[in-house]
Design brief:
Helix 1 (16-34) crosses helix 7. This protein has two domains: 16-199, Rossmann fold, CATH 3.40.50; 212-313, GMP Synthetase, Chain A, domain 3 (2-Layer Sandwich), CATH 3.30.300. Helices cover 40% and strands 17% of the residues. The chain is an alpha/beta fold. Strand 7 and strand 8 form a beta hairpin. It has helices at 16-34, 47-60, 78-89, 100-107, 113-134, 147-153, 182-191, 196-199, 219-238, 291-304; strands spanning 38-42, 64-70, 93-98, 138-142, 172-174, 247-251, 257-261, 264-276, 308-313. It binds xanthosine-5'-monophosphate. Residues 117, 158-159, 203, 205-207, 247, 281, 318, 322-324 line the site of xanthosine-5'-monophosphate.
Length: 326
């Protein structure tokens, strides 16, 4: 039987009972595969790797070693949430690496979007590899591969960025959710007791805020991006929009415009609000947001984020615009 093919008779996991049965089955399978040996996992804090971490914790506890690499391009509070949930609440063996300076130093003056992506992905593998080499006797690598990854990209989980480890670092893979669709992974995550904010997290690209701070990333624009994104998320939550909009974020482009503050002319950054609805991210529509919500977000960003003098709402559908700006 092809272990990468979902059996036709496999029931779709839609309820707590089905999730509990899946979890029990996987715990037994993981224990059988791993025995008393150690498993390494790159824990980004995304839905898939978080669910795999929670599942492995239930199955093998301290034999799981999670590594969270903060590349400095995470959203506000995201790395902190990974540490809080996995280390403090679930008592996981978690190595937290703040590699912010390393990534941002490599990205200085790099303007081209695909080059930025390659640098971020490549550096991620190097940091992860260095940590893996420090550990003794780890035989397995767990991955949050899900079924669409297998169907669409031959099992390569692009945004986990751990596909490119060197040949001398050979691990046997543990991929407990590889036959599940995203909605099923979420049902399993809830059954495992993960916080809803983690389980229902909107898609976040592997290169993170790096592709939303357009052109060459600078620390001041990155700070403006992180703060404005946090304000947008807070206000969408307050307006009850979070569950109904597929993906939303801010962008800080690498051009400035004139403004006036305290009677003086300034030359500051704009913040662009991007919100889209889509089924499969291949095409996307822009929702008609309530004017009062947009105005409140605009005012808060102008009042609270230094170096910003304008807020724009991107009305462009995909196509011709992509969802991200780079
Ligand atoms: P675009 O911008 O191509 O985005 O319309 C479609 C979806 O893919 C996400 N995206 C990425 N995800 N690595 C990822 O893991 C990337 O480099 C990347 N670029 C775009 C984007 O956020 C959207 O959900």
């Amino acid at each position: 039987m092809d272990g990468n093919k979902r059996p036709e008779e496999m029931v779709r996991i839609t309820t707590r009972e089905l999730a509990d049965a899946f979890i029990a089955g996987q715990i037994a399978a993981i224990r059988q595969q791993v025995g008393d040996r150690k498993v390494l996992l790159a824990l980004s804090g995304g839905v898939d790797s978080s669910v795999v971490a929670a599942l492995l914790l239930k199955a093998i506890g301290q034999q799981l070693v999670c590594v969270h690499v903060n590349h400095g391009l995470m959203r506000k509070g995201e790395s902190e949430q990974v540490v809080e949930v996995f280390r403090n609440q679930l008592n996981a063996n978690l190595i937290y690496i703040d590699a912010t300076d390393r990534f941002l130093d490599k990205l200085v003056d790099v303007e081209e979007p695909e080059t930025k992506r390659k640098i971020i992905g490549g550096e991620f593998i190097r940091v992860f590899e260095e940590e893996a080499r420090k550990l003794e006797k780890v035989d397995f690598l767990a991955q949050g591969t899900i079924y669409p990854d297998i169907i669409e990209s031959k099992g390569v989980k692009a945004h986990h960025n751990v596909g490119g480890l060197p040949d001398d670092l050979k691990f046997e893979l543990v991929e407990p959710v590889k036959l599940l669709y995203k909605d099923e992974v979420r049902v399993v995550g809830v059954a495992l007791g993960l916080p809803e904010a983690m389980v229902y997290r909107q898609p976040f690209p592997g290169p993170g805020l790096g592709v939303r701070c357009t052109g060459a990333i600078t620390r001041d624009r990155l700070a403006a991006l992180r703060e404005s994104d946090a304000i947008l998320r807070e206000e969408f939550d307050a307006a009850g929009l979070t569950a109904s909009i597929w993906q939303f974020f801010t962008v800080v482009p690498d051009f400035r415009s004139t403004g006036v503050r305290d009677g003086k002319r300034v030359f500051d950054w704009p913040v662009i609000i991007r919100a889209v609805n889509t089924v499969d991210a291949m095409s996307a529509e822009v929702p008609e947001l309530d004017w009062a919500v947009l105005k409140k977000i605009t005012q808060r960003i102008l009042d609270e984020v230094p170096g910003v003098c304008r807020v724009l709402y991107d009305l462009s559908p995909k196509a011709p615009a992509t969802i991200e700006w780079e």
